[in-house]
Write a structure and sequence with these properties.
With about 210 residues, the protein is mainly α. About 60% of the residues lie in helices and about 5% in strands. It is built from eight helices and two strands. It is elongated, with a radius of gyration of 19 Å.
Length: about 210
C-alpha cells in the first residue's frame, strides 16, 4: 500500500492559505511567525512572572482564536467566504497587515531585552515610554491586532473574523493583566503615571 503524502499535506495546509490571492496573506504571517519565534531567544533574565494558571485568562481566547484563524475549521465545516476580494483588494490588505506587523516589530525592537512572551518583571526593568511606547502602551498588541483584523476581514470567512476578534480580546486582556502586574512591580508613581499619560492600544484616544 502506497503512502500518499499529498493527502496529509492537503489536510494540514489548505483553504485560503493555498488559494491565490489570499495565499499572499498566509505567506506574510508565516514570515512574521518565523522571525518572531527566531527572535524569542533575545530577552533579558526574568525576575518574576505571572503564574501559569492566571495566564489562562488571556491564553485561552488567543488559542481558540488562533485555531479559528487557520484554514482548517472553515474547510472542515465547508464554509465559504462572505465576500471575495480581487488581487488589488488583497494587495491593499497585505500592505495594511504588513504595516501592523512592522509597528509590532518596532515595539519589540524598542523594548529590547525587556520583551517577553509572558507577563514578566525583567532584571533592571524600567518603564519604557519613548518611540512607539510614547504612542500606545502596548504597540506590539496594537500592530498585531490591526494586522490580524485586516487579514481576517480580507479573507472574508466567519472563522477568520471571529478568530481575529478572539485573539484581539485575548491580547487586550493580557495588556490589562500586564498593567496591573507592572504597576505593582515598578510602582504606581512610575508605571501608573505612564498609564494615565499614554493610550493603551488605540492611538490618540484618552488614556484609560
Amino acid at each position: 500500500m502506497s503512502f500518499d503524502f499529498s493527502k496529509i499535506l492537503s489536510v494540514a495546509w489548505g483553504g485560503w492559505t493555498t488559494t491565490w490571492p489570499t495565499e499572499l496573506l498566509a505567506l506574510l504571517w508565516l514570515a512574521f511567525l518565523a522571525s518572531w519565534v527566531g527572535a524569542s531567544f533575545w530577552q533579558g533574565r526574568t525576575k518574576k512572572q505571572v503564574m501559569t494558571r492566571e495566564s489562562q485568562r488571556y491564553r485561552l481566547p488567543i488559542l481558540v482564536g488562533g485555531i479559528l484563524y487557520t484554514p482548517w475549521v472553515a474547510e472542515i465545516m465547508g464554509w465559504k467566504p462572505l465576500w471575495v476580494l480581487d488581487n488589488t483588494g488583497i494587495a491593499v490588505a497585505a500592505v495594511l497587515s504588513a504595516a501592523g506587523i512592522a509597528f509590532a516589530w518596532w515595539g519589540r525592537l524598542h523594548l529590547g531585552k525587556f520583551w517577553s512572551n509572558t507577563i514578566t518583571h525583567k532584571e533592571d526593568h524600567r518603564v519604557i515610554d519613548t518611540g512607539p511606547y510614547g504612542i500606545v502602551r502596548h504597540p506590539i498588541y496594537t500592530g498585531l491586532i490591526f494586522g490580524m483584523l485586516v487579514t481576517g476581514v480580507a479573507i472574508g470567512l466567519v472563522t477568520t473574523i471571529l478568530g481575529a476578534i478572539l485573539i484581539s480580546l485575548g491580547m487586550w486582556q493580557k495588556g490589562r493583566m500586564e498593567e496591573v502586574f507592572l504597576s505593582k512591580e515598578l510602582g504606581e508613581d512610575a508605571y501608573g503615571a505612564y498609564c494615565r499619560r499614554v493610550p493603551m492600544i488605540i492611538p490618540f484616544l484618552s488614556p484609560r
